[in-house]
Design a protein that fits this description.
108 residues, mainly beta, Immunoglobulin-like, three-stranded antiparallel sheet, 1 helix, signal
Length: 108
């Protein structure tokens, strides 16, 4: 039986290892026209987020507008009354919250 030195096994393990591909969620919203808000989501590796949940939620934690991003990783909706935030939820560790105060072009 041939023995392989430990250093050779370590080198082999390093060569065979695949680096983890981290991709952080990215979401942004802006006023598209009038009371219409346009949101888009994706990931830092450049991939889109079609089908990912994007809900509009009141400060009382009521879901005002349940949504999912379309094939173009976008969702448009009419601005709800009152205070709200937008929750882009691509799963554990992949969540972005956008407060209505932070939406570009939105009058408060």
């Amino acid at each position: 039986m041939t023995r392989i030195p430990a250093t050779a096994l370590g080198l082999l393990a390093i060569l065979c290892a695949t680096p983890a591909q981290a991709h952080n969620p990215i979401a942004e919203c802006a006023v598209a026209q009038g009371r219409i808000i346009d949101c888009r989501g994706g990931f830092s590796d450049g991939s889109g987020a079609a089908g990912v949940t994007l809900d509009v939620i009141s400060y009382d934690e009521d879901i005002l507008i349940p949504g999912k991003l379309g094939d173009d990783s976008r969702l448009q909706f009419e601005r709800p009354e009152g205070e709200f935030y937008i929750l882009f939820d691509a799963g554990p560790g992949h969540v972005v919250e956008i407060d209505y105060h932070d939406i570009e072009g939105l009058e408060h």
